[in-house]
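Lab channel / #folding
Pinned by the channel admin:
"Please post every new chain as: sequence first, then the structure tokens as a reply. Keep commentary short and put observations after the output so the thread stays searchable."

First post following the new format, from NK:
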Amino acid sequence: MSVLFGHPSGGPFSHHAALAHFEKGRLDAFCVPWMPSRQVVGLLENAGPLGRRFARRHFPPLASAPKIQGRWGELRRLAIRAFGRGDEGLSYEANDWLMETMGRECRRPAVTAVHSYEDCSLTQFAEAKRLGKACLYDMPIGYYPAWEQTQADLLGRHADWLPAEARLPGRFSRPEQKRREMELADLVLVPGSFVERTILSFHPGKKTARAPYGVDLEFWCPDPEKRTDKALRFICAGQLSIRKGIPGLLAAWEAAGLRDAELELVGPWQLAPEKRGSLPPGVTCLPPCSSEALRERYRAADVFLFPSFFEGFGLVLLEAMACGLPAVATDATAGPDVLDESCGRLVQAGDLDAMVESLRWFGAHRGQLPGMSRAARSRAETFTWGNYRRRMDEGVAPFI
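Reply from TO:
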């Protein structure tokens, strides 16, 4: 029994999914465009953003795992991006390479199951079904038809927040492929209750298994000498877009009217440029930064805000909590699975009054922050990648 596993780029959750199969001795091969070696990462460690991108793809525990790679195609895509000429089409090109490769390699006699992700599973799932092999579908974000409903509502409410290019129909989305992949899946792996809910609302009988993501607790850690004699600092990190709830957050911030408080927005601004020029008082917008720089921003902050309308899990939530930040998160994130009253507050996505009340609560209870900081860290410590691999193994074992 063995699993053919694949991901179009590689990242923490896919690396640990592959490792879960590898640790059990059932990984037939990890299909990935490129997993650079330690030597390559070392050569590029001073290459700025490009070097950091390569470093994220390197994962020592899988160094000896069997792999099928497409290095030259990925090098070409990286070069195009480096010259600023890339778009979303390059990602779909990698998806197509993965589907073609896995569709061919899943014919190996030893392979009993294929395990892959949204937008890059259709070809191998169809072939696996023809051969009587299991299809394991990994969904790191909510189901696309549910997003279509949410997106239509957001566009109606926040059309003036969108840049002109975002108002055009998506050129690369493949809604029918996503639906067909879901239909073919024997099991859907989800990181939390929100993703599971979006799937079951369209496919009530679909078999699902939850495997919550983990966090690197050594890297994401609090500052033991954190200052408290400063303005109360809130931070929100990630894409700054309507999906992430930024228009509502800024409206709530203005309505809350907090004194001696600041809000940092960290990430790529994906809203109308003119909106960035009229941010409310106390709000600062910072560009995307390295993980090391983001960790320092978290350590200098007091509360993490996660106002998103549609997520999968949101690793940023665990990373911020591991750095000792209590959080305010919506029910469309990992918030329902992660937060309790000791370390944060849960609000309904889009509930302006609840967000205003949460901001004011923290403004009025600053003395409780040290205890909530410790509770946030303790809660984050229960979400390890080892637990993720164990839960994933428990979910897929009956299908292999």
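NK: The mean pLDDT is 92.
TO: also worth noting, The chain has two domains: 2-214+385-399, 232-380.
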